[in-house]
Every structure is written in structure tokens, then in C-alpha cells.
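Researcher: We plan to redesign the surface later, but first we want a full-length starting point. C-alpha cells attached.
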């Protein structure tokens, strides 16, 4: 299984359909691959696409993330990301509603660490190959999902 990125100017974008189950919303979002971001995050521009306002977010879920640009407070929301190539990932995505609209959605190291990255800038080709995929879902190390795993853990 593989996830292909798109070279756009000097950046790599990875499209995904983002679903926020608690809020019952979803939209296609182009994530900027950011090895300097500790976590995957949505910002003001993405919230508009999802039709989500800050008042919809859980005030008790605020956490802090770190990146090259410094620290940022984020709300955390359960999200399902569906990538081209029939690959999905469930995560606690960071949502920063007060961020400037020029900041794009970020695909951070919480996801990138689960994949092997292959980049060929001359061919404008970028591929993420998740290390562990089960039934189309990207899994973290040690995460158990299969029936066999549940039987063996008894």
C-alpha cells in the first residue's frame, strides 16, 4: 500500500478526505508534508472547508504541539484520514482555529514516523509507504487490530 504526494512549487502535498466523526463533518484537505511538525494539524483554512467553528470544539481537549515555528495550542479531535490508495489513519488531530490563514494543514511526524518516505524531486514523485497496514488502516507500532492478535493476547 502506498500514498502518493503531489509536488507543488517547493512543497509536497498529500490529499486526504478528513472526517471528524463527533462533529459529523468531512472534506478533502491537501496536507503539507512537514517533518518539523510534531503532529498532524488543521488550521483556520481547513476549518472553513469543514464548516467547523471554534465553538464546536471541545474546550477540555487543548494540548500543545511543537514545531520549527514554536509552540502552538491545539484542540484535539478524533479524525479519520482517508488517503488515495485505499489507506486510512485514525488519529487525534490538532485543530488550531486561531492560526493565520496562510498556515496550511500539516501532515506531521506522528504520521510520517509510521511510513517510509521515498522522494524524487526531479521526477516530482513522492511516495509514503506505511510500515504496518491492516485492512487498509495504518497502525502504530505495537497497535493490535486483528482477530488473531486478540486471540493471542488472551
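Model: Full-length starting sequence:
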Amino acid at each position: 500500500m502506498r500514498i502518493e504526494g503531489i509536488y507543488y512549487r517547493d512543497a509536497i502535498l498529500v490529499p486526504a478526505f478528513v472526517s471528524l466523526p463527533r462533529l459529523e463533518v468531512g472534506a478533502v484537505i491537501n496536507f503539507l508534508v512537514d517533518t518539523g511538525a510534531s503532529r498532524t494539524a488543521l488550521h483556520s483554512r481547513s476549518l472553513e472547508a469543514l464548516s467547523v467553528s471554534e465553538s464546536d470544539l471541545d474546550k477540555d481537549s487543548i494540548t500543545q504541539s511543537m514545531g520549527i515555528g514554536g509552540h502552538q495550542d491545539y484542540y484535539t479531535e478524533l479524525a479519520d484520514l482517508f488517503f488515495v490508495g485505499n489507506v486510512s489513519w485514525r488519529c487525534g488531530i490538532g485543530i488550531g482555529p486561531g492560526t493565520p490563514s496562510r498556515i496550511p494543514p500539516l501532515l506531521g511526524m506522528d504520521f510520517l514516523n509510521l511510513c517510509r518516505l521515498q522522494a524524487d524531486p526531479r521526477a516530482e514523485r513522492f511516495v509514503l509507504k506505511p510500515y504496518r497496514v491492516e485492512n487498509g488502516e495504518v497502525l502504530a507500532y505495537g497497535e493490535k487490530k486483528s482477530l488473531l492478535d486478540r486471540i493471542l493476547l488472551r
